[in-house]
Amino acid sequence: MHKRTVVWNNSLMFPVVFAILLAVLVMSLIIGCARTENDEKKIIRFITWKPNQPAVWEEIYTLFEAEHPDIRVIREVGPHSSTAFHDLLAQKLKNHSPDVDVFFMDVIWPPEFGSAGWALPLDELFPPREQKNFLNGPILANSYKDNIYGVPLFIDSGMLYYRKDLLKRYGFNPPETWPKMVKQAREIVFEESKRKEMFGFSGQFKQYEGLVCNMMEYILSNGGRILNPQTEKCEIAEKPAVDAVRFVRNEIIGKIAPKGVLTYQEPESIAIFIQGKAVFHRNWPYAWEMSNNPERSKIEGMAGITKLPRFSGNKSYATLGGWQLGISSYSKNREAAWTFVRFLTSEKIQKHLALKAGLAPTRKALYKDTEIIQAYPQFSDMKTVFLTARPRPRTPLYPAVSNVLQRYFHKVISDPTSDIEKEACAASQEIDRIISLQDSAPDNSAVSMTETREELGIETKDAISERTSE
Amino acid sequence: MKLSKLIFCGITFVIVFMSLLPFVWFVNTSLKTQAEVTAIPPKLASSGSLHFYRSTIEEHDLLHYVKNSVIVAGATTCITLFISILSAYVLARLRLKYKGVIMGSLLLVSMFPQISIAGPVWKIMQSLGWLNTYQGLIIPYVTLTLPLGIWILTGFFRELPKELEDAARIDGCNRIQTLYKIVVPLAAPGIFTAAILVFIYAWNEFFFALLIMTQRKFQTLPIGIALFQGQYTLPWGEIAAASTVATVPLVLLVFFFQKRIVSGLSAGAVKG
Amino acid sequence: MVMKTKCSSITKERIFAASLLIPCFVFVCIFAFYPILYSFFLSLHRIILGLPSIGQPFIGLENYRELLHDRIALRSLITTFAFVSVSTFFEILFGLIIALVINRHFRGRGLVRAAILVPWAIPTVVSAQMWRFICNDNYGFLNYILFGADISKYRAWLADPFFAFAAIVTADVWKTSSFAALLILAGLQTIPDELYETAKIDGANAWQRFRRITLPLIKPAILIALLFRTIDAFRVFDLVFVMTQGGPADSTNVLQFYGYKKIFAEGFMGYGSTISVLVFITVFVLSLVYIRLIRTRLFTET
Questions:
Q1: CA distances (Å), A205 to each of A211, A393, A417, A427, in order?
Q2: Percent of chain B with pLDDT over 70
Q3: CATH number at residue C244
Q4: I need a labelling partner for C141 at 20 to 30 A (CA). Which of B60, C13, C50, C53 fits?
Q5: Distance between alpha carbon C123 and the CA centroid of its chain, in Å?
Q6: What pLDDT sits at residue B183?
Q7: Who among A115, A396, A407 is closest to C72 (CB)?
Q8: Are B118 and C113 an interchain contact pair (Cβ–Cβ within 8 Å)?
Q9: Do C53 and A441 touch (CB under 8 A)?
């Protein structure tokens, strides 16, 4: 008996540690339970990214909660990169996470989210007569088969920003072709870098969705294509596409653009430009507001904006971007969620976003709004850009297609010894294979054909005829 | 003689320096102000500001992640230990066929690449409706830490003198009583060692947490740290602050219990 | 009579023993072995989360055939092997040095040991963020050490395929060398001091003593550390997820990350499972070697 008590004493440590662990566990469970919200307000959770103008969005949320005192919006901020944002959001929706009511969708996701059943079809809430008030391109991007899965909030397309002051100093006009841009950049950098650090160009070349957007602009403006609408075959291994990619590798990366652009997404690339360290910059429309924001930009009033350059003998192209709002199929507050979506995409808010944050509206009427045109004269010019903006391939398997493209582009532009033709062929075959998987779905094949056709060309024509008829 | 000692000291210093420097730099970063963090070229000194700690707690809900990590790692540790004690006792003391096979397959489990079970585990949790719940993460963690716990404890149990147990049984204790009255207290140091290692594993795990905890309310610290987002660039100051918070408990464990950890890790020579 | 009671008590003990093992058995079977089999089952089907309309058709070994032609998977396999061999090599090398140091008796040995263990205890995600910050092209410590205030020389380390790979290896080596050291240390401590004393008397210098005594005697420990690190390095994921997301140019796209991308980001549950099975088989073969090696110990102890 005596022995045993000794044993117990020696080993007090174990029960004590165990008890502490248990206590902590129980306590945190209690805290956790006690914190369940017993708010009377309806709560909607909005998955968003960190906006570039947080203050502007803050105002909007406050306004919304003032107008709808019974609804509270809780925001959850996702990663900046579209690809990483997609992966996380998709994982949330796959897990049927109840903390998603409303979410942002990149322009390429609605087919996937609709097909997988994650996004709620909005046709009853957002009928065709409502859809008519929006630009055609974004509406099409949100439709898949016979349903619409999102409401477009703002439209994006690639633009070329340049330093008016520098171009003027060296007697250049904004470049119309890519080679011209390279030449101008070289000359300016050669002179300027005697005084300070200076680069010719910055864009988004990290291995992520933005890379596809950037590269598409070179390929399409050289007469190339990602997919052939008739045959549904991938054409990135054709000569125009390969030449465009080679141009980026030989003339841009590590030449007029710092090698670091291979890790840059939008925030890093614009930082160089607004710090006055780059002559040219490719970005979405929001960059205009940022370049002229005296709090952040060192080049206020010096930035110019124009169409993206092209290769000679071809037309300039900009990738269609933009963000939509979708509602989760697993949302328990659909009505409140729709109230929020309708509010954000209303004319009033879109105007606010256009004026304060430089985001291009998706409602047609706003392009005739004098206030907007006055504040952003380039919006009327940008109209032409929006008309030529090309969507990326539309398919529920887009993430897979995009990953192949990202991989291929990043490999060949970051490794100067890689064989572009060979890599392009392999990537092209891979994409063909993925697209063919989609056709193996029995009820899908017919749709995917028409969809792909719409997406490449016809849609743009429709948009043009509609826009010009206004 | 002197020279060799000097060389030895030098090497030791370099090793310690290299082990600590990167992390010290990161902790230092967490004590800077925003301007100091984004200074180009970097500034060495920090002004000792607690700004980032405040902002991670207030804006990024740091304590929430800490709470989840404590719950998940704590529960995993308790459950794993409980099951490991039972199993290790069997493997160390009782007669049973195929012990070698059992030990071997446990070892195998400990080497499973997460990806090869992730999809199915996710599907199981989905069909149980356990995604975004604590048990949804605790259960895979228990499974993956069991081999570690059992291996360490089996080793410890084997080394215990058998006489005490025999005495207890003569006193009229049955097997279970002997286990919790004699074996467990005697093996307390071993159990504690196993507890530390299991806790560290569960505290640090990332892969399953990424798949199963998609709801912020349930996310653990590693997820929070990996997915921190910022406005223009990554919020390095906040990341560094959260990282420090996540690491401090572990560093304390290491400094107080390094002997146990070392013995635990080398005892099995198997992380399991 | 006596024999009979003894027999039944043995059976009873066996039943009792088995019942104590049940909880462990349940966990391991349901959440470890069953998922492995299930992965294999999934890999024989075409399952695409983004296309629920195609159902889950059985396609036999189609996915495996595809895997054979998947250049990215092949590349990923090579990358993984490169990562495993390079990082393991350095971990063993540094592990050996560290072990030799902490095996000595000196004041403050406990503190030194604790300091060395710190990297091992740090969550991988934290160490990944840390190295990512160190390698940052603007604010990073690495550029500062190498180039000081000369900003124009600053490099974006993670933008370069080679350096990004090197960064991941470095992060892994930094974090796990101490673990290798511990395993080797266990081997070192079994060497009796007398051996060294005798060798010294025989006039062997430090290098000879190391070559002739230490190295041969800790060979088994090194082997175990080697195999263990190999298997663990095979499972690298957190570092890649945080530091590079597989880029640049796929230079860090290791198998676990590729599989994760396929299954969870692209939604190819079937094809992704094929990669899971591939990873599993590779690790399984390695594990068998490992278990073989320590088997002797296993049996002598039981």
A1: 5, 19, 18, 18
A2: 95
A3: 1.10.3720.10
A4: B60
A5: 14
A6: 87
A7: A407
A8: no
A9: yes
> For residue A459, what pLDDT is reported?
32
**B231, A52: Cβ pair inside 8 Å?**
yes
Q: Where in chain A is the domain with CATH 3.40.190.10?
A: 42-157+320-388, 159-306
For chains A and C, what is the number of CB pairs under 8 angstroms? 107
A417 contacts chain C (CB < 8 A): no
Chains that touch B (3 or more CB pairs under 8 A): A, C
Domain A42-157+320-388 has CATH 3.40.190.10: yes
- Residue B21 covered by a domain: no
Average pLDDT over residues C105-120: 86
Pick among A21, A35, A57 to test the B interface (most B CBs inside 10 A) = A21
Domains identified in chain B, total number? 1
Q: Copy the structure tokens of residue B156.
A: 């410890």
Q: Between B and C, how many CB-CB pairs are < 8 A?
A: 297
Q: How confident is the model at residue A309 (pLDDT cuts 50, 70, 90)?
A: very high
A419 interface with C at CB cutoff 8 Å: no
Beta strand A71-78 with A303-306 is: unpaired
Mean pLDDT of C134-163: 87
Cβ contact B148:B272 at 8 Å: yes
Q: Residue A79 is nearest to which of B81, B126, B229, comparing CB atoms?
A: B229
Q: What is the pTM of this model?
A: 0.82
C161–chain A Cβ distance below 8 A for any pair:
yes
Is the bond preceding B120 in cis, omega lying within 30 degrees of 0?
no
Q: What is the pLDDT of residues A375-394, one digit of tens each?
A: 887 777 677 667 666 667 77
Contact assignment for C267 to A442 by CB distance below 8 Å? no
Q: Is the pLDDT of residue A48 over 80?
A: yes
Given 3.40.190.10, 3.40.605.10, 3.40.640.10, 3.40.1130.10, which CATH number is that of A159-306?
A: 3.40.190.10
Burial of A341 (0-12, 13-18, 19+ CB in 10 A): buried
- Cβ-nearest to B119 among C42, C287, C291: C42
- What's the confidence (pLDDT) of residue B272? 33
**What is the residue-wise DSSP string for C11-47?**
HHHHHHHHHHHHHHHHHHIIIIIHHHHHHHHHTTB--
Q: Percentage of residues in chain C with pLDDT exceeding 70?
A: 95
Distance from C-alpha of C240 to C-alpha of B269, rounded to nearest angstrom:
27
B86-to-A2, A203, C19 alpha-carbon distances in Å: 26, 60, 9
Cβ distance of B132 and A97 shorter than 8 Å: yes
| DSSP letter assigned to residue A327 | E
- Characterize the bridge pairing of strands A42-49 and A102-106: parallel
In A, which residues are within 8 Å of C71 by CB distance?
426
When divided into structural domains, chain C yields a total of 1
How far off is chain C from A312, nearest CA to CA, in Å?
29
Residues in chain C within 8 Å Cβ distance of B109 = 28, 32-33
Instruction: Flag whether pLDDT at A56 surpasses 80.
Output: yes
DSSP secondary structure letter of residue B148: H
Partner residue facing A92 (CB), from B71, B78, B214: B214
Which among C32, C119, C178 is the nearest to B143, CB-wise? C32
Q: What is the span of the domain harbouring residue B101?
A: 62-268
Cβ atoms of residues B203 and B20 within 8 Å: no
Q: How far is C43 from chain A (nearest CA, A)?
A: 16
Assigned domain for C10 exists: no
Q: Within a domain: residue B22?
A: no
Model pLDDT, residue B232: 46
CATH number of the domain residue B145 falls in: 1.10.3720.10
Residue B187's Cβ-side half-sphere holds a number of Cα atoms within 13 Å equal to: 34
C258 inside 8 A of chain A by CB: no
> Residue C179 is part of which domain span?
43-301
Instruction: Look at residues C241, C248, C235, C240 and name the one whose alpha carbon lies nearest to residue C279.
Output: C235
